[in-house]
Amino acid sequence: MKKIIRSFFYNPCIAKQISRILAKIHQLSYLYLGSFASAAEGGLHPKHRLMDYHKFFVDNIMEGESVLDVGCGNGALLRDVVSKSKARATGIELSEENCRDAKKRLTEFNEVKIIQEDIWKFNCNEYFDVIILSNVLEHLEKRTDLLKHLIRNFMPKKILLRVPMFEREWLVPYKRELDIEWRLDPTHWIEYTEEEFQSELAAAGLDIQKLIFRWGEMYAVAVPSSKERNA
C-alpha cells in the first residue's frame, strides 16, 4: 500500500504540483514568520541580534567620521554606529513611522539628525566621509544613477553596502522556475549575483576594496574611483 501511495505522489507531474504548493506555503510562512518574530522581540527583527550585521558597518567607520545612513529605517543600525564610533551622523528615511521610531531610538544622541526625505531631493550642502546603504539598493530601480548621485553630491570617501544574494540557496532559482515569488521581499527590484553586484558598482564608478559573503548577503566597502572623484 505504501509503495502504491508513494508511486502516485512521487509521479513527476503530481510531485511538481505538490512542490508548487509547498513552495507557496514556504514563501508565505517566511514573510509571516519575520513579522511575528519582530513582534515577539518588541518590534525589532531578530536578525539584528542573530546576524550581528551591525558589526561590519561599525568596524569600517573610524571614530569621528561623518556618516550619512540612506534608508536608515528604525535607526537600530545607526544607533550602534554612533555609540561605538562616535560618528557625526545623519539618517535619511522615507517612512514617517520609521523616522519616528529612529528618533526615539536615538533620542539621547542630540548630534544625530533623522530626516524624513527622499534621498534624490535631500540637499544639505554638506559632505560625508561615509555613506551607508544597508539593504537599501535592492529596493531601487535606478541604482547606478543613485550611487553616482551620492558620490557627486556628498563626496564620500567610501560607501558601505549590504545587499541580498540571489545565490543564497537552491530554492531561489527553483521557485523562479515554478513562477512563484522567490524574492525575500516583493518590493525588491533585484537580488544580486556576485557578477551583477560588481558590475553595478563598477558602472557607478566605485572600486570594491572589500567584499564579504555572510548569511546569504554581500557586504562591500567601495570607494569612488579616481576618475569619478575627478569628474
How would you characterize this protein structure?
- The chain is α/β, with parallel strands linked by helices.
- 43% of the residues lie in helices and 19% in strands.
- The chain contains ten helices and seven strands.
- It has a seven-stranded mixed β-sheet with strand order 3-2-1-4-5-7-6, with helices on both faces.
- The longest helix has 29 residues, at 12-40.
- The radius of gyration is 21 Å and the shape is elongated.
Short key terms for the protein model shown above:
231 residues; alpha/beta; Rossmann fold; 2 domains; 7-stranded mixed β-sheet; 7 strands; 43% helix
Nutshell version of this structure?
This protein is 43% helix and 19% strand. The protein has 231 residues and is an alpha/beta fold.
Helix content: 40-55%
Text of the CATH class of the largest domain? Alpha Beta
CATH architecture of the largest domain: 3-Layer(aba) Sandwich
Shape assignment: elongated
Please, how many helices? 10
DSSP strand tally: 7
Poorly predicted runs of 5 or more residues: none
The CATH topology assignment of the largest domain is Rossmann fold
Q: Give the SSE order as H and E letters.
A: HHHHEHEHEEHEHHEEH
Cα distance spanning the termini: 74 Å
Roughly how many Å is the radius of gyration? 21 Å
User: DSSP strand (E) fraction?
Assistant: 15-25%
Class by helix and strand content? Answer: alpha/beta
Averaging pLDDT over every residue, what do you get?
92
For the report, how would you describe the main beta sheet?
Answer: 7 strands, mixed
Q: Give the full name of the CATH homologous superfamily of the largest domain.
A: Vaccinia Virus protein VP39
Which strand order spans the largest sheet, edge to edge or round the barrel? Answer: 3-2-1-4-5-7-6
Number of domains: 2
